[in-house]
Amino acid sequence: MEKVPMLAEGYEKLTADLKVLREERPKIVDAIEEARAHGDLSEN
């Protein structure tokens, strides 16, 4: 795997994005479970 240099600002932005995605994921999982319970997976 090739390594690519990264500035501190880029690292901070990526870690902030990852934090947001990790917080958002449980909400998405819950929405999918609810849709599955109703038998509606047409959005996926």
Question: Can you put this structure into words, describing what you see?
Answer:
With 44 residues, the chain is mainly alpha-helical. The chain has one domain. Helix content is 68%, strand content 0%. It has one helix and no strands. The protein is elongated. The mean pLDDT is 89.
List keywords for this structure.
single chain; 44 residues; mainly alpha; elongated
List the SSEs and their pairings.
Elements: H1 8-37
Summarize the structure.
This protein has one domain (7-37).
What is the arithmetic mean of pLDDT?
A: 89
Whole-Å distance between the termini? 33 Å
| Beta-strand proportion | under 5%
From the helix content, strand content and strand pairing, which structural class follows? Answer: mainly alpha
Specify the overall morphology: elongated
